[in-house]
Amino acid sequence: MLVGVTACGGGGSSDKAGGDDAKASGKPSASASPSPTKPAGPPMLLDTITPQTGTTVGVAMPISVIFTNPVAAKARATVEKHMKVSTSQPVVGAWHWMGDRRADWRPKTYWPSGTKVRIDADMTGVSNGNGRYGVHGYTHTFTIGDDVRADVSVTGHTMKVTRNGQTVRTLSINAGSAQYPTWDGTMAVIDKQEKVHMTSCSVGISCDKGSPNFYDLTLPWDVHLTQSGTYVHYSTGDPNPGSGSARGSHGCVHLSMSDAKWFYGQVKQGDPVTITGSPRGKAPADNGYADFNLGWDQWLTGSASGEQTSTAL
What we know:
By secondary structure, this protein is mainly beta. Helices cover 7% and strands 34% of the residues.
């Protein structure tokens, strides 16, 4: 499951792979029914596959597969080999296990824009190493859209937004305070919502209404970066962010109302937001989709089958 340390909000988050995830919904393959020649036992099922079929996502979006039950280390190489990644152009990547239920496949570098991707998770008859066997095949297809990136400078109080290598706008921002610093590193957008109910109590900051750090707010134009509650959004407590404002957030990135609405309209799931200049350190890779916070060598240490080139689609 996705875990992490608390940040600025969290009333709208869940413990799934993303706020708009569905259950692993690819149509079962022709071999979806259990084979009588396979060992009997409880089924190995997938809880979610992200991205959803038919979506267009950003260049930093991993394929994230969450199993309903733990997969033993001894079974992971076989499980990985039964989750085939096919693309319209060759892409080098690898699987990486985030604990014993979540496996992500990411490219070595960002996806090329326009790439069409298919994940075929043929789990029929495959063991999870703990007495369960797959009974379904799952297929998801998606497309990599425009290369939209946001680069946030905490110390410079700016966010530069680029599209396909060209700067679109540079916005004024405020990030976390010294007490509640923002995560550093690259976080792919999990999802976005026009309004999110955020409370200090829900993320462990303060449940005391008399505390200066208490808040209970519904705020607009929310771009979700970490499962622990980091967003890029507008805050009524910081309406004019920038270098002239000393007010810091509880870990989120604040934009003005007009900038927050504009940014919300620019980004999609999987677009990378890279934050630099914060003392907090990089967000853990499993805190949302911060997969690119691991170097390639680090990524491969969590893979049972190693580096691979995608199959031709």
